[in-house]
Structures are given as structure tokens and as C-alpha cells.
């Protein structure tokens, strides 16, 4: 093996790139912070205190996030643990669902689903879970807030199966009574991990000397009743539960389940250690010409997110790329596949909490931010010069919320158009024109309502433009193939035809029923969910 091949091989082996998904308030931020702490990536005092005071997460960048206490953008955090190089992709945790979240999940190799023990599987978790499921990525479950009252572990297993349709395998099991658990039993290591209130690490570990749960030594520390109940539960799990099957885990058919409490540091370190062992390293990615292995020495990566004005003092645009194969080195020239242009990647950045660090190299699984000279678009591939890589199925999401927007002050039109153009390039919203309404206003479409609010906020804060926004009563967009200019589209009812940024005709409908009706009435027109590329 060449030196490069050996290096690539060992770097890929130790990479773990994952996203943490949850419904707001389940504890994703707290868990992320604890994982970072164990990885030594942040110091204890500053961040945790600052978070308490300011109530915002390490990954929050934009003012709007701080004001609303939500995380709108996704960031990337990296640390080393036990020989592993860990990349956590943070997904927005707010109620509203955005394309940003979907795209981040395109860049991940596995997902950790955080569930609040009292609330079980919630709406946002369901949606995020389904995206992971569609991609077939492995999902690990962390049941959080075990220091509090909650649902029983069996009830949660059943809920995960019924609501999400995936079987679960508890890696550990709570001991004691609900609301006052003494700790968890680690099934693989046959050890009891006791919950120490106020303890420095939140736990105290007692391995079994005989290697099974019915070790009498456990009865001494747990009490006879709690120990008997634990033995009964474990027996039931061993007999009636699923067997642990790593292949099923890796195919996303079985979720390893961990119980713990991020706030009190309980069960977090054992979870991290087990998770890193089980989670997949970066795997081959599909391209239209067949899979490309991460250890392939030809470099390839794709842009999954673009963000403008991350730092208000440097008006810049950052394109986040996920490296898929080969080694990235600072200053290398690559081919930007959609344009065929050669681009020099001079100042690659990595993002750690609020800081940026210039990096010299990166490997498959890593995410880096590149200054975007204006050539990158979401979903674009970059690869070694002389090569041609096209990654398969990068999803495009049809907008479901629409509004007409206009600058309040017509003198600000220039800034308005500039802001709209840049924010559209980020992919936060899609912009359409309605020719008969004139050039002063745009129609914008977004996957979630929050994106429209973010648009309004950012136009004001970053471009100094106040806008008026009028929400439109449509919820479905269809790109029209076979539409003839000037000819009526039958059955459009209260729908409307507008133009996307490339001047392609798009019909907006109130609901799916209207789409079906128009489809039947116009057999010569195809009503496409996403535009043809
Ligand atoms: P999110 O990112 O998923 O939205 O959740 P986040 O970590 O912000 O946690 C939401 C709330 O739940 C926070 O309380 C946090 O302290 C609490 N929490 C997280 N993990 C645990 C846990 O293991 N046990 C208990 N009891 N609570 C937990 P908050 O009052 O909203 O905020 P804060 O004042 O504590 O920052």
C-alpha cells in the first residue's frame, strides 16, 4: 500500500460522523455539550455557565437564535476520543422543519435519537427519524432525563416499535423505581453503573464477578427487591426481546437503546464509548457511476449547506462540504463539477463552537467550511481535477409555505434584491416571480414557516431592508412540463402560475386534491414535484 493509501485507510477507520436528532427540549444540546466535554473540546466552566446565563447552545450563531433560544443553523463540532475522530453535525432543534435539517442528514453516517423519558417519541423526532430511515442510516437511541419520573422502559420500547416501526435493543437497563432509579445495568459488560447524585462523574461502576445479572453481590448494593426486579426484567429481555445483531443495526433495522441523564452526567460516557465502537465509519457513497469508496485516493466531496454572513463583521459566504473520498489538503485545486471550473481551496475552515480554525487537511467523514467565491450551490460536487463525480439522489424539497414579499421602502430595492438573491443561494427559501404583479415583489416559498420569519429578520439585520410579507393560501407547488405559454391550464381554480428563478413555470395549489384535479384535466402537462435538472 502506498503511504497515502495507508493514511487514508487509518483515518477513515477512526472517523465517526453523526447527527443528534430530537424534539426540542429532549436534551440534545445538553448531551452534545457533555460529549464535547468528554472529548476535551470545550472547557467546563465557560460554556456551561455561559449557556445557563445566555440560554443558547454552543452552536448558535445568529442573533435570531439567541433571541428565540433556538438553533436555526446547523453547525459541526469535532473532537477526539479514545483514538476516534468524532464529527457531530448539529441539526436545528426547533419545531419548524427545514431543508437545512434534511440536508444535514445527507452528510451524516449515523444518527443519535434523543428521547425524553417522560415524553417518549414526539413529532419532530418522528419526522427526523423517517428521513434517517429513508437513507437507511443506523439510528442509536438515548433515553434522557432518567433522573426524573417517566414512562417505563418497556413502554418506551413498545412506543418506538409502534410509532417508528423499528425494533430496539436495550444496551443497558434502569434499576430501581421510576423517578428514583439507582442506576443502570450494562448488559454487555454485566455490570451495574450506579447513579451518584452530586458525584463528580455522576456514576460509580460495579462489575459482576460471576458475569451475570443474578450475581448476589448486586443484591447487596441494590437491595434485594430492586435486584430481583432487575433479574426479572433482564430475563424477559433475554427471552422475549430481540437479539443484538450488528448487521441489523447498521442497516437501520434495529436501534441500540441507552438510558441515562445528560444533565447529571449519568450514563453519558458509557453511551459514548459503546456508540463509537458500534457506529459505522464513513462508507462508500453512491454516484451515478457506481459507489465510490472513502479510501479511493481521488478526492470527492459535496456541498450540503451554504451560509452567508455567519460573521456580521466579515460579510462572507461559507459553503459546508462533506468529504466523501480521498484526502483534502489546504490550497489544493479541485474541479467544481456543475460548472467544470477549477477552484483553489485556499482557506478551509473548521468550526468549533464560536471559533473558526484554519485547517490543513481533512479526510472522508469530515466537514469543512470553504469561503465561497460565488460558485457553489447546494448539492454541488467537487472532485479531483480531471475526474467527474456525480453523487446520486441529493434531495430537493418542495416548498409548502408561500408569501409575497416586498421592500417597504422602494428606495431600498437594490439591497432587497441583493439580500433575496444571497439568501436564496443559501437554500433557505426559494424565490419566484409573478410576472403580472410587477418587479417590485417576489413570491417566496419555504419548507417551514420559520424560514419565512428568518428571511424577514435577516433582510432587516443583514441588509437593512424592512419588508412587508403577505402569506399566500397555497401549500403545494408543481413544476409544469409541457405547459404552453398563454394557454390556460384547466382546473387551476384558485391556483396560480408563477416562474421560478430560472423562469420555469410553476403552479401553486391550495392542496393535493386541487393538484389531482388539474392533473386529470391536463393530460398533456406533467405536474412535477421538483424541477427537472
Ligand atoms: P434541546 O437541545 O433538545 O432543545 O434540549 P436542551 O439540552 O436545551 O434541554 C432542555 C431542557 O432539559 C433544559 O432545561 C435542560 O437543562 C434539561 N435537561 C437536559 N437533560 C436533562 C436531564 O438529563 N435531566 C433533567 N432533569 N433535565 C435535563 P431548561 O430548564 O429549559 O434549561 P436550563 O435552564 O437548564 O438551561
UniProtKB/TrEMBL annotation:
GO biological process terms, semicolon-separated: regulation of translational termination
Pfam families: EF-G_D2 (PF22042), GTP_EFTU (PF00009), RF3_C (PF16658)
Gene name tied to this protein: prfC
CDD domains in alphabetical order: RF3 (cd04169)
Family: Belongs to the TRAFAC class translation factor GTPase superfamily. Classic translation factor GTPase family. PrfC subfamily.
Residue ranges of domain Tr-type G in the record: 13-283
GO MF term (any one): GTP binding
Swiss-Prot/TrEMBL keywords: Cytoplasm, GTP-binding, Nucleotide-binding, Protein biosynthesis
Organism of derivation: Heliobacterium mobile (Heliobacillus mobilis)
Signal peptide: none
Known function: Increases the formation of ribosomal termination complexes and stimulates activities of RF-1 and RF-2. It binds guanine nucleotides and has strong preference for UGA stop codons. It may interact directly with the ribosome. The stimulation of RF-1 and RF-2 is significantly reduced by GTP and GDP, but not by GMP.
Record-listed GTP binding positions: 22-29, 90-94, 144-147
Any GO CC annotation of this UniProt entry: cytosol
Record localization: Cytoplasm
Protein name: Peptide chain release factor 3
